[in-house]
Design a protein that fits this description.
The complex is a heterodimer of chains A (about 220) and B (about 220).
Chain A: E1 3-4, H1 6-11, E2 18-21, H2 31-39, E3 45-48, H3 60-64, E4 68-73, H4 80-88, E5 92-95, H5 98-110, E6 114-117, E7 131-134, E8 137-143, E9 147-158, E10 163-164, H6 173-176, E11 180-191, E12 210-212
Parallel strand pairs in A: 1-12, 2-3, 2-9, 3-4, 4-5, 9-11, 11-12
Antiparallel strand pairs in A: 6-8, 7-8, 9-10
Chain B: H1 3-12, E1 20-23, H2 27-30, E2 42-45, E3 49-53, E4 74-81, H3 84-92, E5 98-101, E6 105-107, E7 112-113, H4 128-134, E8 137-141, E9 145-146, E10 149-150, E11 152-153, E12 168-170, E13 174-179, E14 182-188, H5 194-199, E15 205-206
Parallel strand pairs in B: 1-2, 1-5, 5-8, 6-11, 8-12, 14-15
Antiparallel strand pairs in B: 2-3, 3-4, 6-7, 9-10, 12-13, 13-14
Classes of the chains: A alpha/beta (about 220), B alpha/beta (about 220).
């Protein structure tokens, strides 16, 4: 069954799970799934997400409630709690350039082992990574990322699970949706099949495991 | 003139019609307020938008139309949106003609540090490394000094954003071009002498015989 309640969706996510979560500074984040993860008291999660938003917003709620053991992200500058927990040693933070992060997730979802990028060469972002020369130019090998669960938020989800994102709330969502073993989506509007025209489907129902019921 | 306004106005003179331009947060954001008349450019927001417009009037903001800092923006006629993989493909693929970023330090070879101060401030690089690596032109818009200390230094003591040198540095005192790995004083701000620029700069600057004043 594709449709699922919010409580059931989060109950399926165990402590210690890895989550790839859409959103950019809280815009396009599956906010209700974050709230419910906090309410059910999940612990030791690994979070793969563009940024840690702000305290009390988006995935920032998971940081504040200490649900997260490790975060792989490009930016934590707007969330002082992420930085405090990192400095205190209770949260591991892996910083990845944003373009490399989204490509790593894309590789995970698209069956690729990694991607070669010039970004990060000769900087701290090169540490621990292989440098590969192709036709006389150096690149860093950025390896694929996948997650146990992909959590995304759409503007429209139809009953079958097709998704359409709005404006800048698209961001990491369609990429993340390909990289989770189980894909859960929330939506502002759950609509009949056909309301989203085929050309406007940004994530096909075939890759979405669960549409989370609205209130 | 307020130093930040002066910097933004001078950077805006670098804009050419039809350019795709990415503005960082801080002083670079203000460049959009000073686009010369008759110059149409496309502004990109790294979170997935080309055609970023000004902050909407009260009551006309949409929570899903935001800039890279999460603040509400508008979209101009002809705007388009896309996902983050596409957005960074625009940068690394050389489709972004110019990026304007803030800086903590720039060194004598034009290397930029702008994403962390070890032990003090670790915000993360966000999109800065991709922008500096991939954009066709990289312009640094920053104050010339911080607490009286030069930000244009012989060698960056802070972690680099990229090994690719920037192209132009615009401060409230001067415009400095990076040419073949060296810094060349290109313009001084109105009322500022060459000696004052040299005194506020740690890195070696090449000074041509004639240094014009910024045309602002």
């Amino acid at each position: 069954m594709k449709r699922i309640s919010l409580e059931e969706a989060v109950a399926a996510i165990p402590d210690g799970a890895s989550l790839a979560v859409g959103g950019f500074v809280g815009v396009g984040t599956p906010e209700r799934l974050c709230d419910e993860l906090v309410r059910q008291g999940r612990r030791d999660l690994t979070l793969i997400t563009n940024d840690t938003a702000r305290p009390g917003m988006g995935v920032g709620k998971l940081i504040s409630a200490r649900c997260v053991r490790k975060v792989i992200t490009s930016h934590i500058g707007l969330n002082p709690e992420t930085q405090q927990q990192m400095h205190a040693g209770s949260l591991e933070v892996e910083l990845v350039p944003q373009g490399s992060l989204v490509e790593r997730i894309r590789c995970g979802g698209f069956g690729l082992g990694g991607v070669l990028t010039p970004t990060g060469l000769g900087t701290l972002a090169e540490e621990g990574k292989r440098r590969i020369e192709v036709e006389g130019k150096d690149y860093l090998l950025e390896t694929a990322l996948t997650a146990d669960f992909a959590l995304v938020h759409a503007m429209y989800a139809d009953y079958s699970g097709n998704l359409h994102y709005l404006l800048t709330a698209r961001n990491f969502n369609p990429i993340v949706a390909m990289a989770g073993s189980r894909v859960m989506a929330t939506a502002d509007h759950i609509v009949p099949v056909g309301v989203i025209s085929p050309d406007d489907v940004m994530t096909p129902a075939a890759v979405v495991d669960h549409i989370v019921a609205n209130h | 003139m307020n130093p930040q306004t002066l910097i933004a106005k001078r950077v805006a003179l670098e804009l050419q019609p039809g350019m795709l331009v990415n503005l960082g947060i801080g002083i670079p954001t203000q460049v959009a307020n000073h686009v010369p008349a008759g110059i149409d450019v496309f502004f990109q927001s790294e979170n997935g938008l080309i055609g970023t417009g000004p902050v909407p009037e009260p009551g006309f903001a949409h929570p899903k139309l935001t800039d890279a800092g999460g603040q509400a923006v508008s979209a101009l006629p002809g705007a388009c949106t896309f996902d983050s993989a596409f957005s960074f493909g625009l940068m690394r693929g050389g489709h972004v003609d110019m990026t304007v970023l803030g800086g903590l330090q720039v060194d004598g070879s034009g290397h930029l540090s702008n994403w962390m101060i070890p032990g003090k401030m670790v915000p993360g690089m966000g999109g800065a490394m991709d922008l500096v690596t991939g954009a066709k032109q990289v312009v640094v818009a920053m104050q010339h000094t911080v607490k009286g200390k030069p930000k244009i230094v012989s060698q960056c003591s802070l972690p680099l954003t990229s090994v690719r040198p920037v192209d132009l540095i615009v401060t409230e005192l001067a415009v400095i071009a990076v040419v073949a790995g060296r810094l060349r004083l290109q313009e001084v701000a109105p009322g500022v002498g060459v000696d004052a620029v040299l005194a506020a700069t740690e890195a070696v600057l090449e000074v041509p015989d004639h240094v014009p004043t910024m045309p602002i």
